[in-house]
């Protein structure tokens, strides 16, 4: 049957391609997820060895600082996207439990605050003088004693932030590609994976790189399984949902970028996995007494691939999602 | 509290677009933006083709996803039951635009969300929306569904009306009467 549509009085923003959220939101979702992943991973690093002084535990001293910077830059991107950022004050005069944007409005500053406490708590004694302000030095001394509960809090908030970005998108029932219960899980797993990858890159000790390489292997496996379930869930759903994944499997020029993204997701992540597995095998063969430069390079390279994959995943989901509609046109 | 609804008798629309222009003029809608539109949909197998002229606008849904999505209560239900935007409170996050399954909202050049208000300012004066008053074919009919004697109540009693994307569960307040064109909307 033929269907021909012509529309008079159409807003460019809503038709033909609904592109309301652009690259700024992509970066917000990416950086928010990355920050969440780093927070969870460095909390694991700082909590795994029981009852030792902070200096020995804090193999990820710089990680909370990097998580803070990454999230602050991410928040800046979403503020840049706001049409009327000066009206943001209204967001802090109310809390709307059904609005995921409201959760973000309150949640991001809360995470930044807890993250700041974490930064102060993990600063080693000999580095505290760098804080300059006596008040901060004193605060750091006090918080260092409570490093473990602060790390636990940051772990929980990292999980909240990691899953929040996915829940935000999945809450839009009008966008079939996003309105999927698997999406928050996918975003959480990819956020944790990118966080582990970032810790691999920034960690100075090769043992820490090795530990997070091992953690990331499982996260990449989980991510690939969830990506497959995400597409399968949409494929087996009703017409608008099935149609929503079509751009990913189309080679027409308009949708080619999504095909590329799909190839990248299924190429970059398994490639990173393979490199990581290769490292693991070498270490298990008894080579880990001394880490060669090539081994460290490969661990870092695989981590960069994972982070690139996380960005591509979010860009593809945000843009492809907005090409999908519940209505026939 | 009245329950304002719009009934669109699709077969009476002649596609003159007077409603689109009346709405722009009445509400001072910026150049390049529209609060209502007319969709021409041709369906069928040649030579058995049928054309529908369908007016589309904000549905002022009973279960409005735009209200839930709004972080500042800028999108809210007004006392008269219609869905409205308080532009002073809108931060321009565009969540409501994405939440609307009907693409009824857009972002203005000032960066805030905007949409059909059912001409709220005219309702306060006891007048009908500008698109309804200007409609040549009397395709757009407006009134209070809670008043059993209103034209909309009578029409909806007499005809089987449909709403757009009923499966979305938003319970729209814009109803369509179209006996001959099944499968549209």
TrEMBL record, chain A:
Keywords from the named record: Cell membrane, Membrane, Transmembrane, Transmembrane helix
Primary location group: membrane
Cellular component terms per the entry's GO annotation: plasma membrane
Membrane topology classification: Multi-pass membrane protein
Cell location: Cell membrane
InterPro entries registered for this protein in UniProt: Electron_transfer_protein, NrfD-like
Transmembrane segments: 25-49, 61-80, 100-123, 155-175, 181-203, 215-235, 255-273, 301-321
Pfam family, one: NrfD
Family from the record: Belongs to the NrfD family.
Matches recorded under PANTHER family: PROTEIN NRFD
This protein's name: NrfD/PsrC family molybdoenzyme membrane anchor subunit
UniProtKB/TrEMBL annotation, chain B:
UniProt keyword annotations, A-Z: 4Fe-4S, Iron, Iron-sulfur, Metal-binding
Gene3D superfamilies: 3.30.70.20
PROSITE patterns xref list: 4FE4S_FER_1 (PS00198), 4FE4S_FER_2 (PS51379)
Domain of life from the UniProt record: Bacteria
InterPro entries: 4Fe4S_Fe-S-bd (IPR017896), 4Fe4S_Fe_S_CS (IPR017900), ET_IronSulfur_Cluster-Binding (IPR050954)
One term of GO molecular function: metal ion binding
All copies of domain 4Fe-4S ferredoxin-type, residue ranges: 4-33, 49-80, 81-110
A Pfam family that the UniProt record links to this protein: Fer4_2
Name of protein: 4Fe-4S dicluster domain-containing protein
Record lineage: Bacteria, Pseudomonadati, Nitrospirota, Thermodesulfovibrionia, Thermodesulfovibrionales
């Amino acid at each position: 049957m033929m269907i021909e549509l012509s529309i008079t009085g159409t807003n460019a923003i809503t038709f033909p391609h609904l592109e309301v959220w652009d690259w700024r939101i992509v970066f917000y979702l990416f950086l928010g997820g990355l920050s969440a992943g780093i927070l969870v991973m460095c909390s694991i690093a700082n909590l795994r060895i029981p009852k030792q002084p902070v200096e020995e535990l804090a193999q990820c001293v710089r990680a909370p600082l990097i998580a803070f910077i990454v999230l602050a830059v991410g928040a800046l991107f979403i503020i840049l996207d706001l049409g009327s950022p000066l009206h943001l004050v209204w967001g802090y005069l109310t809390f709307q439990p059904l609005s995921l944007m409201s959760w973000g409005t309150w949640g991001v500053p809360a995470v930044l605050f807890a993250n700041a406490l974490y930064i102060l708590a993990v600063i080693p004694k000999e580095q505290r003088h760098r804080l300059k302000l006596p008040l901060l030095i004193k605060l750091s001394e006090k918080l260092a004693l409570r490093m473990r509960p602060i790390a636990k809090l940051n772990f929980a908030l990292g999980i909240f932030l990691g899953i929040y970005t996915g829940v935000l998108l999945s809450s839009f029932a009008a966008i079939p590609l996003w309105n999927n219960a698997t999406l928050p899980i996918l975003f959480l797993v990819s956020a944790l994976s990118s966080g582990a990858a970032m810790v691999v890159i920034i960690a100075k000790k090769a043992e820490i790189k090795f530990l997070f390489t091992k953690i990331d292997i499982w996260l990449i496996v989980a991510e690939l399984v969830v990506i497959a379930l995400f597409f399968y869930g949409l494929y087996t759903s009703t017409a608008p949902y099935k149609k929503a994944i079509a751009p990913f499997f189309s080679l027409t020029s308009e949708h080619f970028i999504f095909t590329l993204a799909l190839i990248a997701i299924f190429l970059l992540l398994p490639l990173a996995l393979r490199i990581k597995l290769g490292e693991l095998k070498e270490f298990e063969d008894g080579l880990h007494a001394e880490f060669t430069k090539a081994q460290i390079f490969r661990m870092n390279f695989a981590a960069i691939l994972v982070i690139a994959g996380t960005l591509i995943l979010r860009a593809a989901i945000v843009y492809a999602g907005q090409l999908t509609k519940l209505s026939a046109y | 509290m009245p329950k304002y609804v719009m009934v669109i008798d699709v077969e009476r629309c002649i596609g003159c677009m007077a409603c689109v222009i009346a709405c722009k003029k009445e509400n001072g809608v910026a150049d390049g933006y529209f609060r209502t539109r007319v969709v021409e949909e041709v369906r069928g197998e040649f030579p058995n083709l049928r054309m529908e002229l369908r007016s589309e606008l904000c549905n002022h849904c009973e279960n409005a996803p735009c209200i839930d999505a709004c972080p500042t209560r800028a999108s809210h239900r007004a006392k008269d039951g219609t869905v409205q935007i308080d532009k002073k409170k809108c931060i321009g996050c565009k969540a409501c635009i994405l939440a609307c399954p009907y693409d009824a909202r857009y972002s203005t050049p000032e960066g805030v969300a905007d949409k059909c208000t059912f001409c709220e300012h005219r309702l306060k004066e006891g007048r009908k929306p500008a698109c309804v008053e200007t409609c040549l074919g009397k395709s757009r009919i407006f009134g209070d569904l809670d008043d059993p004697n209103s034209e909309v109540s009578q029409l909806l009693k007499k005809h089987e009306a449909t709403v757009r994307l009923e499966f979305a569960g938003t319970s729209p307040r814009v109803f369509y009467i179209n006996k001959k064109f099944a499968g549209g909307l």
